[in-house]
Every structure is written in structure tokens, then in C-alpha cells.
Amino acid sequence: MPPPRITEAKGILAARLREIRSEAGMTGRLLASQAGWHYSKVSKIENAAQMPNETDIRVWCRICDAEEYVVDLIAAVRNIDSMYTEWRRLESTGLRHVQESFQPLYRDTQQFRVFQHSAVPGLLQTPGYARAHLRAVIDFRGIPDDLDDAVAARLAQQQVLSAGGKRFMFIVGEQALRTRVCGVEGMLEQLDRLAGLTANTPQLSFGVIPATARPVILPPENFWIYDATQVRVDTIPGQYRIKIPSDVALYERAFARLSETAVYGQAARELVQAEAERLRGT
């Protein structure tokens, strides 16, 4: 059985196609006849029993005189095809493969927008923090233990931070500064790195949403926006890649609102340093 989110996406696509046909004043049999399809195909598509391909979408919209919807509908089809990747398949040989699978995307992306509420994003992790984080994932999922290789692959990803022509915007919740992913010394090292990142540059900005803030929106998931073309959302059972333009735009809007709530520069540094002082006092 497909994950609920994919089932929901298929249902939304089916309902939209049914709406387009209805607004065109066409019956399912008439649409099928003009498309040269078996009469049952339209019913199957509209009940999410059969996924339309890109050619089906183009034909459907042409017959219904709704070609302005082709781009979004094709994006929806592609999104359903690729939005979900089971971690078990990616992790079947360990976490190194998972970390390395991001390299082509990182290489091709010019603008990164990252929101994480309670953990430091991988591109900003110190070796000790990364090791503890990946160790927890390996132990929880019961996957092959390739910790050393996985840590090396994660740290290798960070080379993209110095690549020319790219822009990185990171926002974390204040909870990310407090979550004890590793021991005190490791956390202090991580916090020291984050403090250095608060000296924002044209290439990289780092913001913190204070625990006392009242964001207009607080997403239930962490998300990464790659340019304006796709969004990655990580969940416990798997990873979603969202590519529908209207959905990507919604995440862009959410990130803009979160950016307005976050603090930067000296204010962010004070939050990081306050947590470091608290740790030193324990």
C-alpha cells in the first residue's frame, strides 16, 4: 500500500482532472472517444485507479480547452512518481550511500533555503555532532553500520559551502541549539561553529527563531528548498521530494515568513553563546 501522502496526492490529481472535464461540459465517454481511449480509462483516472502519464495530461487538457493547466498537472504527475523514496532502500547498504546521493543535487543547486527546528542541518555539522547524529540513525533503523564512511560522506557534502555562485540561507529553531545530540564538549564545538556563522555574508546567512517568538507559521516538518524547483521533506519512514510549482511556492512563502521571525547577526550570536554558557555551567 502506498504511503498516505502519495495516496492523497493521487486523489488530488484525480479530482482536478475530473473538475477540468466537468467544467468543459464533457462526459467521460465523450472525452475518451475524442482521445481515442477505451471508455473506462477516464473513469479509472478520475478515481485514482490509474495514473495518467504526461501524454494523457496533454491530451486531456487539449480536449477540455484547458491547456493553461498542463505545466502544473505534469509537475504533479512527476512529483507523485518521485516524491517518495523509502529510506530502507536507500539505506540497504548503509548511510554512506544516502549521503552521497545528495551530491548531484547539491552541485546543481544555486540557492539553498533550509529550515530545521530542533537539529543542526547536516551542511553545518561538526565532525563530532555528525558522528553522534548518524550513529543515532543507524542504531534506530537497524541498518548496516558504516558510520566512519557515512560521517566522511556528510562532511564531504560541506565542500559545497565554498563553491562559487551559490547562496545558502539557514534557519533553525532555538531548540536546535539545545538538543543534546552529542556530549557537552561536542555540543560546545558545534555551538562555536554556529556562533561563527552568525557573521552573515552575502553567500551564507544563519538565523535562529527564538523560543519566545510567535511565528506566523510553524511547519511540523523540516524542509530544504533547492532553487525554486523542488523541496525535500524528511519524515521518519521516508523522504518526500515535492516538485509541483504551486507547492514549492507555498514552502517558499513559509520560509519567507520564518525568515521574518528569525534573528540574525549579534542577536543570533547571543542566543548561541547563552546556550554555550549554560552548557559550561552544567
**Order of helical and strand elements:** HHHHHEHHHEHHEHHEEEEHH
Main beta-sheet annotation: 7 strands, mixed
Low-confidence stretches: none
Give the fraction of residues assigned to helices. Answer: 40-55%
Question: Helix segment count?
Answer: 14
What does the average pLDDT come to? 91
Strand content: 5-15%
- Tell me the radius of gyration: 23 Å
Strand order of the largest sheet: 1-7-6-5-2-3-4
Entry keywords:
7 strands; 282 residues; 7-stranded mixed sheet; 14 helices; alpha/beta; elongated
Condensed summary:
By secondary structure, the chain is α/β, with parallel strands linked by helices. 54% of the residues lie in helices and 13% in strands.
What would you note in describing this structure?
Helix content is 54%, strand content 13%. It has helices at 4-23, 28-35, 39-46, 54-63, 70-82, 87-90, 95-101, 103-108, 127-141, 147-157, 175-178, 184-197, 245-261, 265-280; strands spanning 84-86, 111-116, 167-173, 204-209, 223-226, 230-234, 238-242. Strand 6 and strand 7 form a beta hairpin. The longest helix has 20 residues, at 4-23. The radius of gyration is 23 Å and the shape is elongated.
